[in-house]
C-alpha cells in the first residue's frame, strides 16, 4: 500500500487484532491508535474485514515471491511442494497470534474473511495458482493435474490452522508435518495414476471441485406466526 496514512492505519489495526483479538477491536480503537479521525479510518478501510482482506492480499503477494524463489532451487515435485508450504510458513512466521485472532471469526461461514467466501475469491485463486506452479510439468494424468493444486491449497489451509495453534518451539511440529506431507505426495500420485483407480479419481475431482463452488447464502427463515419480521 503506497499511501502512508492507509499503511499506518492498517499497521495499527493488525497490532490491535494481535493484542485484543479481532472481535474486541473497534474501528474507533484503530483510528485512535493511528491518530486519525474515525471518518479518515473509514475512508481508507470501510470495515475491519477490509483491513484483514488487505492483509490477505499482501501476504499472498509475499508468498508468491517467496515460493518462486524456493522453486528455483528445487529438484522435483517433492522439493517444490516442500518449498511452497514452508515459504508460506516463513511469510506468516510472526503472525501466528494474528492468524489465531482472525480464524476465530473466519470459521463463521457467514464471514467475509472465510477462506471460501466470495470476498476472498481473488486471493484464493492467486493461492491456487502458486500451487499450480509447484506442480509444474510433472508427468501425471490430466485429472490429477486438475485436482492437485486445489487439493494442496486445502492442505495448506489446514496447515495454517494447525500452525496458529502450534505451541511447539518455533512451531517445529508444523514444519515436520509439511515435510511429511511433501514426502508422501509423489508416491500417492504414482499410486493414484493406476488405471484401476480412475473412478476414484473422478470422485475426488468432483469432491474437491464442490469445495470451490460459489457459496450460496441460506434462505432466511421466515418469522414464526405472531412474530414481527
Automatic annotation (TrEMBL):
Alphabetized Pfam families for the sequence: TetR_C_23 (PF17931), TetR_N (PF00440)
Which InterPro entries does this entry report, sorted A to Z? DNA-bd_HTH_TetR-type_CS (IPR023772), Homeodomain-like_sf (IPR009057), HTH-type_TetR-like_transc_reg (IPR050109), HTH_TetR (IPR001647), Tet_transcr_reg_TetR-rel_C_sf (IPR036271), TetR_C_23 (IPR041673)
UniProt-listed PROSITE patterns: HTH_TETR_1 (PS01081), HTH_TETR_2 (PS50977)
Gene3D superfamilies named among the record's database cross-references:
Tetracycline Repressor, domain 2 (1.10.357.10)
The record places domain HTH tetR-type at: 3-63
Does NAD appear among the keywords? no
Going by the UniProt record, its keywords in alphabetical order are: DNA-binding
PANTHER family found in the cross-reference section: HTH-TYPE TRANSCRIPTIONAL DUAL REGULATOR CECR, HTH-TYPE TRANSCRIPTIONAL REGULATOR RUTR
What is the name listed in the Swiss-Prot or TrEMBL entry for this protein? TetR/AcrR family transcriptional regulator
Amino acid at each position: 500500500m503506497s499511501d502512508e496514512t492507509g499503511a499506518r492505519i492498517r499497521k495499527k489495526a493488525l497490532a490491535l487484532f494481535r493484542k485484543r483479538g479481532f472481535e474486541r477491536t473497534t474501528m474507533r480503537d484503530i483510528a485512535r491508535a493511528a491518530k486519525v479521525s474515525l471518518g479518515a479510518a473509514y475512508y481508507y478501510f470501510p470495515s475491519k474485514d477490509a483491513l484483514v482482506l488487505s492483509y490477505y492480499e499482501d501476504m499472498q503477494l509475499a508468498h508468491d515471491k517467496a515460493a518462486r524463489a524456493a522453486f528455483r532451487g528445487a529438484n522435483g515435485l517433492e522439493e517444490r511442494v516442500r518449498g511452497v508450504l514452508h515459504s508460506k510458513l516463513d511469510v506468516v512466521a510472526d503472525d501466528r497470534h494474528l492468524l489465531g485472532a482472525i480464524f476465530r471469526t473466519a470459521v463463521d461461514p457467514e464471514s467475509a474473511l472465510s477462506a471460501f467466501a466470495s470476498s476472498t475469491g481473488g486471493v484464493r485463486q492467486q493461492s491456487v495458482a502458486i500451487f499450480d506452479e509447484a506442480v509444474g510439468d510433472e508427468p501425471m494424468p490430466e485429472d490429477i493435474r486438475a485436482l492437485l493444486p486445489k487439493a494442496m491449497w486445502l492442505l495448506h489451509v489446514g496447515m495454517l490452522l494447525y500452525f496458529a495453534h502450534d505451541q511447539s518451539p518455533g512451531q517445529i511440529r508444523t514444519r515436520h508435518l509439511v515435510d511429511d506431507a511433501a514426502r508422501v505426495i509423489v508416491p500417492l500420485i504414482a499410486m493414484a495414476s493406476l488405471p484401476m483407480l480412475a473412478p476414484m479419481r473422478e470422485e475426488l475431482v468432483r469432491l474437491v471441485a464442490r469445495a470451490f463452488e460459489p457459496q450460496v447464502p441460506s434462505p432466511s427463515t421466515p418469522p414464526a406466526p405472531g412474530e414481527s419480521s
